[in-house]
Amino acid sequence: MAAVVGGNIGKMIYNVLSNDSTLISDIGSANKIQPVVMYNESPEEGIFYEVLSVENINTKTISTADLVVVTYQIECFSVSYIKLIDISARIQFLLDKLGAGTYGGFKIQSNVLTSMSEDFNKKNSLYYRQLTFQCRSI
After folding, report:
1. pLDDT in tens, the chain (138 residues)
2. In whole angstroms, what is the distance from residue 40 CA to residue 127 CA?
3. Contact 23/84 with Cβ under 8 angstroms?
4. pTM confidence score
5. Which member of 80, 91, 105, 127 has the greatest number of CB atoms within 10 A?
């Protein structure tokens, strides 16, 4: 189950973010929401996501994990610091405390922001903000 959950959480992330007209207006296109594996050395302006860890938790049995906790991060890149703040604030609004439900075919129990950091990428002159979330999937 862990590989399935870890691999499919991207569907939830993309579903929630790409269906928000305010966020799409800020970034220009849903095509700018991609898995982090889409850039090799230097990222471009946009939103990238990646799974950091997947933890199976056996709450009812010792042989089958009925709860999976996925830690993932969203990386935002923008040429404008003010635009970066707007984009990352919108992502936080959409994903932090996301209620139980099914998003993009992915069923979650909860989703919580656990940390945030920012930096400036000198190589391509982009401001960068990273938001880390913990998602509980059942």
Report:
1. 444 566 689 999 999 999 999 999 999 999 999 998 877 666 788 999 999 998 887 666 666 667 889 999 999 999 999 999 999 999 999 999 999 999 998 999 999 999 999 999 888 899 999 999 999 987
2. 18
3. no
4. 0.88
5. 91
User: Residue 115 has which token pair?
Assistant: 């940390």
The answer to whether 111 and 89 are in contact (CB under 8 A) is no
The angle at the Cα of 19, spanning 13 to 24, to the nearest 5 degrees, equals 100
68, two tokens:
């999976």
3-state secondary structure of 26: helix
Rounded-to-integer distance, Cα 21 and Cα 38, Å:
23
